[in-house]
Amino acid sequence: FDGYEGRVLILDEVDALIIDEEPNEAFVYPNQELSEMASSVARSMANGTSPEQLKMGSKHPAGERVIREMAKEWARGQRLKAGEDFVYSKEMGRYCALHSGRANPKDWSLALECRNFQDKLSTHILFQERLFVMSRPRVFRKYHRILGLSGSIGSEAERRFLRDTYRAAFFEVPPFLKTCRGSPFHEAVPVRIGELKRPVYVETS
């Protein structure tokens, strides 16, 4: 989008994202269009076409980047060692990364995608793209509002940090059964919300 004005950011597990600084980790997701492009590049490289030749014929905005990454990981995939970097999984019908001596089919790497293609265990390359990286407080502050959710109430030190850094206000949502009339756990406790801290009773039939 063009700007942050009027935008609300909803963060689940906000304490982990903010306090533990996990926002600085990259998130990757499968990209169908780039996967098709990477698969085409793999077929061409398997037939002896050089990355330079592929770049000359590419018109897609992301073409040069995909070709560059594929060329690098294609060579890396050829250097991977069976039994050390990967193992064949009969269940999956392809190579999987090794972790603590066991196959881990969920551990994705472009190099291993290439190795599966090279050894004819796959005809398709799954290309995962870094879509965004959660950033520092200066980025979070640009949003009009941030709604953070957490299963823990946080320590006073954490709350003080969030108040000072993000001008955060806090309110607690009672456990669901405490809000249900007729429940043995029912306990209509007012929740103070907003800048005026007015109590609001939460009831669910």
Describe this structure in words.
The protein has two domains: 1-25 and 135-204, no CATH class; 32-126, no CATH class. It has seven helices and nine strands. The chain has helices spanning 14-19, 32-46, 51-57, 63-79, 110-118, 137-140, 156-166, and strands at residues 8-12, 26-30, 86-89, 94-99, 102-104, 128-133, 145-149, 190-193, 198-201. The strands form four sheets. A three-stranded antiparallel beta sheet has the order 3-4-5, with helices on one face. Strand 4 (94-99) and strand 5 (102-104) form a beta hairpin. The chain is elongated, with a radius of gyration of 25 Å. The mean pLDDT is 82.
Query: Which structural class fits the helix and strand makeup?
Result: alpha+beta
Let me know the average pLDDT.
82
Overall shape: it is: elongated
- How much helix is in the residues? 25-40%
Number of domains: 2
Could you give the distance between the termini? 40 Å
Contiguous uncertain segments of 5+ residues: none
Strand proportion, as a percent range, falls in 15-25%
Sketch the major β-sheet: 3 strands, antiparallel
* SSE series: EHEHHHEEEHEHEHEE
Number of helices: 7
**Beta strand count:** 9
- Rg is 25 Å
Widest sheet, order of strands: 3-4-5
